[in-house]
Backbone:
């Protein structure tokens, strides 16, 4: 349970972040949701209020340092604590390595890695002072395997996986830091990346479980890692990909 906990979730307007917010509210937490698109955030907030009144929305761009740090400080001032942090906000800019300019390359790092550094740097002292806290970073299987046209995104997510481990060591013994590594999940971002039925079927065929995950199937592992049920788990990388990265896929 997350009764009376204060949980801060980036990128919670839809997909994994929204599903995680739903679960945390159902478990009794106060949940701060963030999103860059005001309309999407307002819609998410309206739907979450049907579950619990303990939801707060912050319309921010996590790639902007002042916005993310001011948001976190405002939450800390209001509630006196932040018990849990979920770094979920994604940013994907694809392209061939030879075609990417440095600005496009860096775009992938702003939300996927730089923002995580900023949120962690901000909340960790508060958690350490209270001798309590949990952070879950949402990476991607693209951070584990090479994927054409996604070199920058993959590099950022690989960095996030390593950053999680380093943070777990520095945050111990009272604050736990873990990473969830999803495969294909049915989110708006995935629908944009896989725009037609044939491509979707081809993607599904490469997954041993022969389907794409529902966002709640990633949200459950995230909320588990936030909870006291995971009290001796830190520095872990939990792959949630339907067996995709377990398969050598040699000749079939």
Residues:
């Amino acid at each position: 349970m997350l009764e009376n906990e204060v949980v801060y979730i980036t990128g919670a307007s839809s997909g994994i972040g929204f599903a995680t917010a739903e679960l945390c509210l159902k478990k009794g937490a106060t949940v701060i949701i963030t999103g860059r698109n005001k309309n999407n955030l307002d819609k998410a907030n309206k739907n979450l209020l049907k579950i619990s009144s303990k939801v707060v929305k912050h319309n921010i761009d996590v790639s902007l340092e002042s916005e993310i740090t001011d948001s976190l400080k405002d939450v800390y001032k209001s509630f006196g604590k932040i018990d849990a942090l979920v770094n979920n906000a994604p940013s994907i800019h694809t392209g061939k390595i030879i075609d990417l300019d440095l600005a496009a390359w860096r775009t992938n790092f702003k939300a996927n890695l730089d923002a995580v550094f900023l949120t962690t740097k901000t909340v960790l002292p508060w958690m350490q002072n209270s001798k309590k806290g949990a952070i879950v970073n949402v990476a991607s299987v693209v951070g584990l395997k090479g994927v054409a046209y996604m070199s920058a995104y993959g590099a950022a997510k690989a960095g996030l996986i390593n950053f999680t481990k380093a943070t777990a060591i520095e945050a111990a013994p009272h604050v736990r830091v873990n990473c969830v590594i999803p495969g294909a999940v049915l989110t708006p971002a995935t629908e944009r990346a896989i725009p037609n039925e044939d491509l979707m079927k081809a993607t599904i065929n490469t997954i041993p479980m022969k389907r794409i995950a529902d966002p709640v199937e990633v949200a459950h592992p995230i909320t588990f890692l936030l909870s006291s049920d995971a009290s001796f788990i830190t520095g872990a990388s939990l792959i949630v990909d339907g067996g995709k990265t377990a398969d050598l896929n040699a000749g079939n």
About this structure: The chain has a mean pLDDT of 95.
